Amino acid sequence: DGGITQSPKYLFRKEGQNVTLSCEQNLNHDAMYWYRQDPGQGLRLIYYSQIVNDFQKGDIAEGYSVSREKKESFPLTVTSAQKNPTAFYLCASSVLRQGAGGYTFGSGTRLTVV
Amino acid sequence: KNEVEQSPQNLTAQEGEFITINCSYSVGISALHWLQQHPGGGIVSLFMLSSGKKKHGRLIATINIQEKHSSLHITASHPRDSAVYICAVNGNYGGSQGNLIFGKGTKLSVKP
Fold this sequence. Notes:
Radius of gyration of chain B: 14 Å
Largest sheet of chain B: 6 strands, mixed
Strand content of chain B: over 45%
Number of helices of chain A: 0
Radius of gyration of chain A: 13 Å
Strand content of chain A: over 45%
Largest interface: A-B, 32 and 27 residues
Low-confidence stretches of chain B: none
Distance between the termini of chain A: 36 Å
Oligomer: heterodimer
Shape of chain A: globular
Helix content of chain B: under 10%
Mean pLDDT of chain B: 91
Shape of chain B: globular
Number of helices of chain B: 0
Order of helices and strands of chain B: EEEEEEEEEEE
Mean pLDDT of chain A: 90
Number of strands of chain B: 11
Helix content of chain A: under 10%
């Protein structure tokens, strides 16, 4: 079955370390997105990509980096510059370039920085 | 003011009750989505609407474009419906047309 796979589900890191979250989809979707979720807040967009080798900053891109070398993969790196990295991270994809179609979400990665 | 507002924030119901969750938005949109997030965190897309009404099983979603308002109804609610329900819209503006703007979610708890 097609879908999005995020790994790992839980991740613990020491302060000051970079960490990379994986997101893979086998839906042949053009667009992929990374969102951050904090308690009591709506999901906020970190980065998105509508085509291979191209990506755009979202509302809260500072302290994060991404790459889109393959259509299927959109990894997110949380760098040491991110001041408050502990959060729940969700990856999503959509079929249309403008993303106005249906979305598929991953199961998320909960990152805890200690 | 948030561009997407949901009410109520929290909702507790008895099994069998009819439930309504509301969503109001202040931007032009191309589509509105209702999403379900279970305690484990993964999100499932329930509906995508641009007009009218959609039904899937015990779930019904409606949208009124003129009033910029949508509702999600659950008939004959069941404890397994307990989850956070999130309203999100595709803004119909600028370079980020494909991106979703999310409400903060409504936490539903259905008691047996």
